[in-house]
Amino acid sequence: xxxxxxxxxxxxxxxxxxxxxxxxxxxxxxxxxxxxxxxxxxxxxxxxxxxxxxxxxxxxxxxxxxxxxxxxxxxxxxxxxxxxxxxxxxxxxxxxxxxxxxxxxxxxxxxxxxxxxxxxxxxxxxxxxxxxxxxxx
Length: 137
Hints:
Shape: flat
Strand content: over 45%
CATH topology: Jelly Rolls
Low-confidence stretches: none
CATH class: Mainly Beta
Oligomer: single chain
CATH architecture: Sandwich
Number of helices: 1
Radius of gyration: 16 Å
Helix content: under 10%
Structural class: mainly beta
Number of strands: 10
Number of domains: 1
Order of helices and strands: EEEEHEEEEEE
């Protein structure tokens, strides 16, 4: 399998796999088969990994056009795990993560100076059964 590498730094959440909006029909199922997070910082890093879908229609009803507020469903896969210096974490060791493509896949670090590399591989299958393999960052 071929992997694409994504360098992540800072404390802003990074969307590794982009989903679609909740108010649209899901047309695909994403199956994440590999996710490796390698600590490239000089000290321990603290990482969150989660799936999130934003419901734009509900957001507009509740908040109007406010850019900072959103109505979202968030499901943590890992929350506040510490990865020691020089160590890599295999998130889905032998088990894959399957979700419809309304959900985006995020990685978030806890401190602005922290850095990691993320390697991810997933398959995207149409609801009708057409399968495509994707390597994305």
